[in-house]
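Consider the tokenized backbone below.
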């Protein structure tokens, strides 16, 4: 696919939160991208590095993560096509975490200079990027509550609810079925669980007929039941009305 297609994904993602006038959409579509294809488990930016460019997720699944003293990994967030997970590097250039791929991925690199010129030329685009960082903060708060206070089944269910909701908003799910290219150790790393405990509790969710997961494909069988277990309220994602249509069967 060409650069235009990937920039259209960026516009689609921004518009899940706020509509953009045609002139602003066109400015975003003119961003100069350098496309880079990466294998799974490849670092895009490492902790401590100084950055001079932002990274647009074009294809695949990307995560923020940190490694603690004993070598264990904590995944801090998951990023889908259309996300710019390091937009904050415009102002904080030294990375305080790693950004890496979980699956084979295509990323579009765009210089800080180009992004700064765009945001200075359009306050609407600047607001859209600022809104993205605020929504990321809202998602962090929700993850913090989950890791700190929710039982393991609720944490797992919440991650599944959030993932399919976000995939639906960007047109990569019909609200019932979506690709879930996460291994069980990766889910455990995101939720602060051991792989063994995560495996056991995920099996309980599947046996309760809330979801089916086969060959990296998630199928929601009981959306209301899954949301109840997760205590999931999508308001913290701040999506535009009608951005998602989730199965409520």
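A designed sequence for it:
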């Amino acid at each position: 696919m060409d650069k235009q297609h990937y920039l259209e994904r960026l516009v689609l993602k921004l518009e899940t939160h706020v509509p953009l006038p045609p002139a602003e959409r066109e400015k975003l579509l003119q961003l100069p991208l350098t496309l880079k294809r990466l294998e799974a488990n490849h670092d895009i930016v490492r902790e401590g590095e100084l950055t001079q460019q932002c990274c647009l997720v074009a294809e695949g699944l990307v995560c923020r993560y940190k490694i603690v003293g004993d070598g264990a990994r904590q995944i801090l967030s998951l990023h889908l096509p259309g996300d710019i997970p390091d937009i904050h590097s415009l102002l904080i250039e030294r990375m305080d975490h790693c950004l890496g791929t979980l699956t084979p991925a295509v990323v579009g690199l765009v210089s800080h200079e180009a992004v700064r010129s765009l945001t200075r030329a359009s306050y609407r685009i600047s607001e859209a990027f600022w809104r993205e960082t605020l929504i990321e903060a809202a998602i962090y708060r929700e993850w913090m509550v989950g890791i700190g206070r929710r039982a393991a089944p609720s944490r797992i269910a919440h991650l599944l609810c959030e993932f399919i909701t976000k995939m639906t908003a960007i047109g990569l799910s019909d609200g019932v079925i979506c690709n879930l290219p996460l291994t069980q150790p990766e889910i455990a790393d995101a939720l602060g669980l051991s792989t063994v405990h995560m495996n056991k509790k995920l099996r309980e969710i599947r046996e309760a007929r809330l979801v089916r997961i086969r060959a990296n494909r998630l199928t929601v069988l009981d959306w209301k039941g899954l949301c109840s277990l997760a205590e999931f309220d999508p308001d913290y994602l701040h999506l535009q009305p009608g951005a998602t249509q989730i199965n409520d069967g």
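The radius of gyration is 18 Å.
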